[in-house]
Specification:
heterodimer; A: alpha/beta; Rossmann fold; eight-stranded mixed beta sheet; 15 strands; globular; B: alpha/beta; six-stranded mixed beta sheet; 28% strand
């Protein structure tokens, strides 16, 4: 049997949650599925399974395009009884934004953390924005609960991660400080930019706005090295051709404090 | 200040008499602690911080002599709050119903369990219904995953609790079986029945609806025994609309008095 690659697309922000009318990132992740009409399951746990968020998901992922479902861990009596079977049968699992701390707490209580690892290893594409990006990494910077703080994610990707990485954001400064203090190297993404990992390698950075960027971050002693990554704007060309993994030649280093 | 917890088998924040009676008891307990206009905070965590649960809480307490607030862990992004400071400044912390598993998992993730234990030791009244009642015990019977299952709570109260005792036969059956299999003995609470725990002593039972009962559930040689507890009936206060009319009447009367219209 042909084994599907392990894939994660981590959005700094964007998709239906944040970019009403701009389906580029959502279309990109649907395009990674190996089925014409893929099975997509939405996990809105980080929002406390907010009803309005679930409704917006179903609007953005209509029945013509895919077979959409969601799992509400606050209303288990309504959803699929066997979470594992349901999640492992998906082509794409889409994780919504909100509180990453609460997300991880609830997932662990229901064993979703283990199931998602299994799903990833089985080739189910995992994606999400904001909290739904941070959760896949070993370490992450959350700014959801006031001052930015470090959280430990599921650890599928052995990097750190920061989302909503805008040049003047408090998160960016906090991330740099954490890197200097020994946080492992990692990746950051601005709103509308998505980091596409195949296995544990960054394959490419895609964006639903031409100016949105992803970054690679590392610390050398007291210095933070922030490399702006070459990013493919998804509005220019159909998002089908897969670029080779990002290498140093495709990176353009910019100054870092 | 003596530690107090009010655990309820089930209620809502509507304007119906039994719901008003429950809200009134909470207001009284909070006011006793505060000695003045009390602070009452809802933790709607078990519901995923639904607007509905929060809205009903404000509808019940918004017009009463208290300062209501909500601490919504899933909404901190839009409204950051200092969790510890806010909770420890309250007179009563009310925990809403929903998923007991998620409630405890999210609290643990935010280190809220320790803060709530501290609040309890400081005499801040803790209250809650359904998941928000079972969470204070050693264990309860949750339907967080669909089927009734045993779930461990924070253990501030000894023993176990089963809620919605009259309304959910499958939950009650699961509880009786669990107790016969060695789950710590405890209590069954119908909707609108409650237990008020004060200090170390046994709880006193209250009921806001005729026929709603609290049971002591224990395991014996002959099987599990359910003994109904004598309960104090909680009368419903005047409905909000009537209270407003009375308040309005008093305002007009005092204005007239000031204006010298009345003697």
């Amino acid at each position: 049997m042909e084994t599907a690659p392990r894939q994660i697309v981590a959005f700094g922000g964007g998709g239906f949650s944040m970019e009403s009318g701009n389906p580029l990132l959502d279309e990109y992740v649907l395009g990674l599925c190996r089925r014409e009409r893929p099975k997509v399951c939405f996990l809105p746990s980080a929002s406390g399974d907010a009803d309005h968020y679930v409704v917006r998901f179903y609007r953005a992922f209509p029945a013509e395009r895919c077979e959409a479902s969601h799992i509400s861990l606050f209303r288990r009596e309504q959803g699929p009884e066997d979470l594992r079977t349901h999640l492992l049968s998906q082509d794409l699992i889409y994780v919504g934004g909100g509180s990453v701390v609460s997300l991880l707490g609830v997932w662990r209580a229901h064993g979703i953390d283990q199931i998602l690892r299994e799903a990833w290893e089985a080739g189910v594409v995992l994606c999400g924005l904001s909290a739904g990006s941070l959760c896949w990494f070993e370490e992450a910077v959350t700014g959801f609960h006031g001052a930015p703080q470090r959280v430990e994610g599921l650890g599928l990707l052995p990097f750190s991660n920061c989302v909503h990485y805008e040049p003047t954001s408090e998160r960016r400064l906090a991330y740099h400080a954490m890197l200097r203090a020994g946080m492992r190297p990692g990746y950051a993404a601005e709103d509308s930019a998505g980091l596409h990992f195949i296995g544990c390698e960054l394959s490419r950075v895609v964006a639903s706005r031409p100016a949105a960027r992803g970054y690679r971050l590392d610390a050398a002693g007291d210095r933070v090295i922030e490399m702006r990554l070459a990013t493919t704007y998804l509005g220019d060309a159909p998002p089908v051709t897969r670029l080779p993994g990002a290498t140093s030649s495709s990176l353009s280093a910019t100054s870092a404090a | 200040m003596v530690s107090r917890i009010l655990t309820l088998g089930g209620h809502d924040f509507t304007s119906r008499p039994p719901d008003r009676a429950v809200s009134e008891l909470m207001l009284r307990l909070a006011t006793e602690r505060a000695g003045k206009r009390p602070k009452i905070c809802i933790l709607p965590t078990a519901s995923g911080d639904t607007s509905e649960q929060i809205g009903r809480f404000y509808a019940a307490f918004g017009e009463r002599p208290c300062e209501p607030s909500d601490l919504s862990l899933f909404r901190l992004g839009r409204r950051p709050m200092a969790l510890r400071d806010h909770l420890l400044s309250q007179d009563l912390i009310y925990v809403g119903g929903g998923s007991m598993v998620n409630l405890l998992a999210v609290w643990e993730a935010h280190d809220l369990s320790a803060i709530l234990s501290l609040a309890w030791r400081q005499g801040i009244v803790l209250a809650g219904q359904s998941a928000g009642a079972m969470c204070w015990f050693e264990s309860g019977i949750t339907k967080s995953s669909g089927k009734p299952e045993i779930e461990a709570g924070l253990g501030l109260l000894h023993g176990s609790l089963c809620v919605h005792y009259n309304n959910e036969p499958e939950r009650r059956a699961a509880y009786l079986e669990a107790v016969s299999n060695g789950m710590p003995s405890g209590y069954g609470l119908d909707d609108y029945a409650g237990l008020l725990w004060e200090g170390e002593g046994p709880p006193s039972a209250v009921t806001a609806r005729r026929g709603a009962r609290a049971y002591r559930v224990t395991s014996s040689d002959t099987g599990v025994v359910e003994s109904p507890l004598p309960a104090r009936f909680l009368p419903a206060p005047a409905p909000a609309a009537l209270r407003e009319d009375i308040a309005e009447f008093r305002r007009i009367k005092s204005m007239r008095k000031r204006a010298g219209w009345l003697g």
